[in-house]
Amino acid sequence: MGKVMMAGLLLAGLATATVRSGDTAPLDPTSGATSTPAEAAATEVPRSADEQAVHDAVLDYVEGIYRVQPERIERSVHPTLRKYGYVRGEQGWGGTAMTFEQLRDLAATYNTNGRIGADAPKEITVFDVLDQTATAKLVADWGIDYFHLAKVEGRWQIMNVLWQTPPEM
Given 53, 55, 123, 137, which is the most exposed site by the fewest CB atoms within 10 A? Predict the structure, then answer.
């Protein structure tokens, strides 16, 4: 993506970047100058209330699974959820569907053994927030999830999830 186009997207609030420890991020996308993650965080454009609510819905989803808190799934995911994922196995990629009830039950048991620690990945990127719909991405312990959210009775809820286990590097 060109520097001018990226600068326009950043100014419009339509592009986001995930900064990890030790990475640098552009101070000004058109200049090539960089900053540390702490400096980048200090210069981030504040989120709107809706952007924060979308981020929080995705955070409830991942924390509900990581911390064995199915009530967070009930709060952030719509009961008509459509979730589909791709898992890489010995014979290639296979697909699997999951309902709201299955996700809630999974959250109640997924990390009961504590194998996922406090430092597990939960990188959330909010791509787009409109009046009634939003899109986001999560990088988590199990892979990468893409979300469609809707504002239902004034609250952002996850309607669709498309995910896959980590790609081969």
Answer: 123
Q: Specify the number of domains making up the chain.
A: 2
Range of the domain at 32: 3-42
Alpha-carbon gap, residue 17 to 105, rounded angstroms:
32
Do 34 and 55 fall within a single domain? no
Measure the CA–CA gap between 107 and 61, rounded to whole angstroms.
9
pLDDT, tens digit (0-9, with 9 covering 90-100), for 6-55: 333 333 444 444 433 333 333 344 444 444 444 444 445 568 999 999 99
Same domain, yes or no, for 114 and 150?
yes
Q: Tens digits of per-residue pLDDT, 109-157?
A: 999 999 998 899 999 999 999 999 999 999 999 999 999 999 999 999 9
pTM: 0.73
